[in-house]
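== Item description ==
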Amino acid sequence: MNLIQAIIMGLIQGLTEFLPVSSSGHLVLTSSLYKYFTHKEFVTGSSEEVVFDIVLHLGTLLAVVLFFKDDILKITKSFINACVKRDFSDADAKLAAFILLGTVFTVLVAFPLKIVSESLINLPYIVGIFIFLTGCILYLGEWASEKKKAKTDKVDLKTAIIIGLAQGIASIPGISRSGSTISTGIFLGLDRVSCARYSFLLSLPIIVGASIFYPVLELDLHQMMSFSWVAFVVGFIVSFVSGFFCIKYFLKFLGKHSMKVFAYYCWIAGIFMFVFFKFFV
């Protein structure tokens, strides 16, 4: 791991984690193109690379926390009060409970897909198919948005469960987490901005869980001492800064525009990945 790799991957993670184009799919694309043109490994699947990916996700996690800090404090306080009083009638307390419930359903889907997801890292043409599928999901979501006149900004039990399942499916490289969760919310009647807000908040528990449990269960201290921690810090900062501004401007974009432009992009990127890595590599 060197500084150039750290900057490139940090920027890609920060932008594509929140834009509905699949951060995991674009990391596979970048690493595969780097390997093709330089004849060097970019992502090897080693412990260092896996931990670096976690570090990048922590950068975008911090971006979410700082951007939504007021919302997080409010719903956390409401949830604690609701637990003490055993009264979950407050809207913010319900939202916190729905985020936790959605996370449970995410894990139920994502954990069985773990082996499949990891195997796709070395199959970029397959990842290209899933990026193309992400484009279809986004387009259908916008089609549903145009058909549904009644919109709401409230998440209910059914919505929380289904969006949680969608986030679990998005553990497959190429399926956008934000794209699938936002589009699913739109299908269920949520407005785009509320979908995006809930999607970003829903990402917090799963990123925290993965960031804690993988190092604890899979690594030892001796391994971690040998990692390129300077590159890790640089990647973290780049993913945080790019992620923060991406959230800010993406929410503004969603308030005025549809996600069809991202659907078109995913179709182009997916077709390119499939054709290039299937027939030319």
